[in-house]
Amino acid sequence: MTATAQRHLLLNMTANGSLAKPGKDLFVVRHGEGPYVDDTAGNRYIDGLSGLYCCQIGYSYADEIAEAAQKQLRELCYSPLWSDSAHPTGLALAERLAALAPDGIEHVFFSGGGAEAVETAWKIARRYHTLRGETGRTKAISRRGAYHGLTLGALSFTDDPGLTEPYGPPAVETHFVANTNRTALEQPLDEGAFTAYLLADVEATVLAAGPESVGMLIAEPVQNRGGCITPPAGYWEGLRRLADRYGFLLVADEVITAFGRLGEWFGGECYGARPDIVTVAKGITAGYAPMGATLVSGRVAEVINRPGEVLNHGYTFSGHPLSAAIALRSLEIMERDRILDNVRGHQDHLAQRMTSLGDLPIVGDVRGAGYFYALELVGDLDGGGFSDTARAALVADLIPRRLREAGLLARVYNRAAPLVQIAPPLISDRPLLDRIADIIADTLDEASARL
Questions:
Q1: Which Pfam family would be a valid example here (predicted)?
Q2: pLDDT value at residue 23
């Protein structure tokens, strides 16, 4: 299989040429059951990252999902949501999402995934402002270290030179503001002062860019890149006030945090977010099919839906009947089996277990919420950085290898801020969460000793 990949497959976000190195074998997952996956050698692992933050209900609902898929395929395999055409399953899913969405979010534009959903959010924002006569609102605001997707439009809002520089100037002029990582502060601030500092930075950036030129601000309720960075109290309420004051749209990127990851249907609800637009993907189908969506407030839709106005934007597979049927069944399962209640019932225990890992010498900070946590690692240099030797030996090798050997799939970042991150399936019970925490503790204890 490694040889086949070398000959034919270009993996995402991968140094594909490195697969040719001696002893470098491709990790191939062949089977899933409950919160576990098996590789081609028969080894079983806890899927501590829900695939890629997707598999909310794990891998044991295939029969139910397949039943819904088969029914849909026999009835209608494809029909576009285009011009004056639609299909019943797409309509039903739009209605269902509008019912689950935060107050005021009433309209849905479907896409194939998260980057497309973000791209759609920008185009809707541009259309909204243009139709209101504010054609100069061509700039966006994002947060430092943020990731919002890899299509050229979404890439504009992503702050990672390694991802952006190979493709030249951004498609959208974007100004970056401080994210909500408290460990990045030179001096500690209390909660209220930290919120004020962050909002002052946003306001100063808006004023410097020209308030009449800013079209939208995009942010995740909990920022994934940089390690599950949670906001301080009052932050999202403050973003709402600034958006209203200066006329830009507020976009909550919930591609990861929606559909139960933080214990609510939409993670922004945990933090008082009142966005104009919400982007979702991943958990909308629990990983059983590809789909994304951009959820739009009534006040924005009222403008872009003016009689005679055309939303010149679309995707061939927008709201594909098969994906829509799978999404509907997945949401039905989550509600029926009280998946969100499972997260709410165990999230405090997971928080306690993850927080306790902060006592290990190699752990500098613990961040997260719900079933979404990261440990920021500190190394052997003054200030907490890693020497090249320690980074190569521990972050790039020992930690990911030991986690996998112990039967846990987690994310180990080996970039500016080394991290260990988990996002287990939302069906995970307390014994499984304890097992995840124990494996991480043993692994980082060994890494601490070597450090």
A1: Aminotran_3
A2: 66
